[in-house]
Amino acid sequence: MTRILGAVLAGGRSRRFGSDKALAVFDGTTLIDHALAALAAQCDAVLVCGRSGPGSIADRPTPDLGPLGGLNAALHHAAANGFTAVISAPCDMPILPADLVARLQAAGSTSFVTATPVIGLWPARLADELDLHLAEGGDRSMWRWTARVAALPVTIDGLANVNTPDDLARLRR
Question: Which pLDDT score, from 0 to 100, does residue 171 have?
Fold first, then answer.
């Protein structure tokens, strides 16, 4: 049986936004809560990576590794708790397709969204591989990770990424 863990990656510093963008409000709800709700509707369980508090886990092995630190924490949590795979999404994309999981699964067991590889489907068995990748140092980009694990690209148009207050203002319009 396939069990999917939804992981909202929220460990960034929000430098371009100027304040904690995960807590910025869009349509009466914080960006992080939008992301959690979108994944909760499609996954067996959800958690937040890179923050403290209930329902959250710390990046692994340390903070400040970018999205891969959060993904690594999620993969290890998934492997230790009987999940087959992780669907990752950033906290700053409040509008995710209702069929995101199905679209990623249709592409293959390891897949990502071409416009933003932070959104992806990652088998829990990749946890040790990501540990190794991070230990090797060097390029910690999501693009490098997708190449290393031969993840398959999925095109999903119309995703809005909120990096600045102006991005949020445009989304509100």
Answer: 85
